[in-house]
What we know:
The complex is a heterodimer.
Chain A: H1 4-13, E1 19-25, H2 30-39, E2 46-48, H3 54-58, E3 66-70, E4 76-79, H4 83-98
Parallel strand pairs in A: 1-2
Antiparallel strand pairs in A: 3-4
Chain B: H1 2-19, H2 33-64, H3 68-95, H4 100-112, H5 117-130, H6 136-146, H7 149-161, H8 165-183, H9 190-210, H10 216-231, E1 242-244, E2 250-252, E3 260-266
Antiparallel strand pairs in B: 1-2
Amino acid sequence: MAMVPHERSLVKKMEGKPFALLGVNFDNSKEILKKCEEKNQITWRSFFDGREGPIGKKFNIRYLPTIYVLDDKGVIRYKGVRDKAMDEAVATLLKEVEKPKK
Amino acid sequence: MRRFVMWVIPILALAPALAAAEPPKDPPKDKPKADKAATAAEQLQTLQKELQKLGQEAQKQFNEAKTPEEKQKIRDEYFKKLKEYAPRFLEIAEKNPKDDAAFEALGFVLNAAQGTPTADKAIDLLLKDHIKSKRMGQFCAFLGMSGSPGAEKVLRAVMEKNPEKEVKVQATLSLGQMLKQKTETPGTKKADIEKLSKEAETLLASIEKDFPDANAQILEQAKVDLFELRNLAIGKTIPEVEGEDADGKKFKLSDYRGKVVVLDFWAEW
Lengths: 102, 269
């Protein structure tokens, strides 16, 4: 939750670019998730997984938040980046999308 | 707060984890057994009590600190103090090579004094006095988390020299996990990452094959780690995620191909 303000500004900054922030949420119910999204102006979507949900299990999640940054092809390019490091990761990958190497 | 708890606890939690074990065999013959054992254990207990107090104080200060800088300072000071304790723990182990207390004391030294000559000495003692111990299993689990070069040396020696299957399998798992962890440490070179992942994969895959009778938890953990290594490492295509959003609308991660995606696993609690 501590990351929400930064994430909100990142989403805002990236408006119109080929970028998406997605969550996987482990709260107890969709209602709690919904309320939390409304209260904190969370405009991005989350997969609701619940406590001990199948997605969390598949990804062997041991602590929160866990962050993956994917390029436009779905390849994992960064893990665990926060704040400024997250911004830089996203910026680097966006450059690749905008200027294909080949 | 959660992060703080995570780094205090491994050190303090070590004692109870290692305490549940068999009594020492072959006590040194030159001194009366009961006396010496009691003394070593008592010395250890005294030190542990001091550390506990230190940890509680640090936790309190940490909680009260207002800025990240202050918190960092408290954290650094706490680690510095722990390091200063290491030689005293080492001394207990040196003087009581066959004692249970030695084992515990060395665990502390390895954790608190990573990368110092004191830790190197602790590694030597562990290799010399304890490598064949049945209790090494629990210790391996702990060593795997520390990630130090010394820990790696001990894990490899346990795999090779410890006669107990349960201990060997734990060492294999811990080493596999440790190498896997290193592949994700910032600054690791690409060639090294490839080498590390390859060995981690071999080790983790060997568990099911070579230790089919190991306990279910270890087998399951090895599987999960292997999946992570093969599918969730940097450079791999992320596995599909399918589910519903807060409104109950179905969607998939692959719907977002063509976009750069930050995937954040989170919860309000």
